[in-house]
Design brief:
The protein has 198 residues and is of the alpha+beta class. Helices cover 33% and strands 25% of the residues.
Length: 198
Amino acid sequence: MSLHTEAARSLKEWTAPSEEQDALRQAYLDHLLAHRDGMWKACAEGHLTASALVVDPVGERVLLTLHRKLEMWLQMGGHCEPEDDSLAAAALREATEESGVVGLRLLPGGPVRLDRHSTPCAVHLDVQYAALAPPDAAERISEESLDLRWYGYGDAAGWARLAEVADGSVLRLVSATRSRLAAGRPLGPGGPARDGDG
């Protein structure tokens, strides 16, 4: 199965958490229907990307990267590659490469949210996941990052510090991830969840 087909299947099966997110889900599907190359950077009209928020739920903190080109604090993520067999696989690969953290697992339930935004490259139709960091997580700065830093989110002071550096898209992803964690979905002992779980 091609990544294009797998992405469309995943989005069709995903239960969006709101009407706004469901409308965006349909827009992503329409884009894929109109563009056979809609998964790839070469699609100038816009393309799907995959990202993952690296989260330490025990320490109530998230790991953000200071993006080298954009000079913004963001979650890990980027373009899909030919070796990716799903959006979830792309998100996990990007999170692992950019954070240097070994042993990340995607939070079950499929994507946490969708976010469409403009970049210097093109419009990105980002499919956003959350990746659980192991207790002994050790980050390592990649060539795509200027810095990596953990930010707390569990109290008002931590959230205020996070809001000082992160834009609205990142804050919405953190909030949605907190809601997913608070819902108490079992994390399970196994590896990463598949993107068709949600």
